[in-house]
Amino acid sequence: xxxxxYLDNQATTPLAPEVFEAMxxxxxxxxxxxxxxxxxxxxxxxxxxxxxxxxxxxxxxxGKLVFTGSATEAINLGFGVVRKQLExxxxxxxxxxxxHAAVRDxxxxxxxxxxxxxxxxxxxxxxxxxxxxxxKIDHETALVAAMLVNNExxxxxxxxxxxxxxxxxxxxMLCDAVQGYGRMTMPKNVDMIALSGHKxxxxxxxxxxxxxxxxxxxxxxxxxxxxxxxxxGTLSPALCAGLGKAAMLCHDYMDRDLxxxxxxxxxxxxxxxxxxxNGSMAQRYPGNLNIRxxxxxxxxxxxxxxxxxxxxxSACASGSGRPSHVLTALGLExxxxxxxxxxxxxxxxxxxxxxxAANLINIAAKAQSQ
Length: 370
Ligand code: PLP
Hints:
The protein is α/β, with parallel strands linked by helices and 370 residues long. It is 40% helix and 14% strand. It is globular and about 65 Å long. Residues 314-318 have low confidence and may be disordered.
């Protein structure tokens, strides 16, 4: 079978072989419940706690880390903090217009509870207007949520400046770091950070919410009071160990991964030099290249170039059939949104992948215009 060139590393990443090896014994013989008091249980619990430390090693400080089933769940859990803030008369939530649905839709759901939810616009390069945030944020603001790296266009938001503004009014700050965790240093002073296993060469089905030590969040999932009482349910030691190992590898390989991905990105930029880049190039994670070509039918392109896995936008947005709200927020016309593709480079891509994929995509794109 012909190999698929995988250039969709924002949707998900391949499992690192070392992660697979770390998980296997826990799926086979070491089956203990980490919440049991006997020896098998205690062994499983020790594995979970070692993984927690590995994940925390990439976070800004020693805090509280709650394992969840996904980053989406971690974000929903973190948002619960606004219920407590409401008791202090804080009923406003501010998020960026370009947030992933996990943040955007969760924020919007709080309108039903009487919260005012502001979706902040971004500039045409995808970076938020700090002045706009400064004008919206006030002493009634409960929470500001902003992503570190955008999943569709790769732009990096000025999180530390956002935190400063949030804290100046006594609001809390949640950062969706799903596309940045393990790839760059985490911003300081954020109150909560959400991350996901399957974006860092780890397993699907696990994420985490990190929060400052002093922060208390309401229980989202009731039951056996695992995970500090806020997220009940038996943990999977295999998934925890997989996430821990993936975090450890990201820690050890961070510089090497970045250098490798920068080289791939430079080559891709040259090979696609007659396409237009969506979003800032200066403030961008190099593993993302979102580009467009006027008149292109992207759905047709994806079905023609079958041996390359790439995306028309975010995997989630494609699933919903909604046009990308991120590209729309940059001010792109609907036709330009529909003529955009996202290429995502990762640890396991090589220069050959980029050259072959560019060749196939460029030939198919050219054929459409003839
Ligand atoms: N936030 C961002 C920026 C993402 O890219 C994703 C996944 O696409 C998520 C949140 C949701 O992560 P998960 O798949 O772990 O729920």
